[in-house]
Amino acid sequence: KQWYQRRVPITAGEIEPKCPKFLKRKLIHKFAQDNKATLFKNGLPVYDGNKNVYSSIKLPVGNEAQSVEVELPEQVDSKAKKFTIQIKFAASIDMSCLEQVLKGKFQCQVLSPVIKCDQIEIF
Fold it and tell me: How crowded is residue 40: how many other Cβ atoms within 10 Å of its Cβ?
């Protein structure tokens, strides 16, 4: 099973704002909900709270960076704000090793920064 990592830096105009994680999460959530049917094939990505989203679905945007505008609705203390989320392919992650570990067929040892899997016998 493959998982796909995408970098998703958030900008406001030309600059990358120093926004708190709760605001970044709101932006990514709004982006995911708005594009659930088209990009994520009715699935939702997992966001790490920084600059990465992970999905089990290969997105139809390819490996080139693409930008999407996201607008948060008005808040009590401010007007609606527009942000740009850039989506760029970062990595393809093979999760078959994890599946084997969970089934008890492999033992994984983390070796900086590579994960090495060895088959073990269960007694």
Answer: 19
**The two three-digit tokens of residue 115, written as one number:** 């994960």
Length, in residues, of the chain: 123
**CA–CA dist 56, 52 (Å, integer):** 14
pLDDT tens digits for 12-56? Answer: 866 666 778 888 888 999 999 888 888 888 778 889 888 899 988
Name residue 44's amino acid: L
d(CA 47, CA 59): 15
pTM for the model: 0.70
- Other beta carbons within 10 Å of 52: 16
Are residues 121 and 52 in contact, defined by beta-carbon separation less than 8 angstroms? no
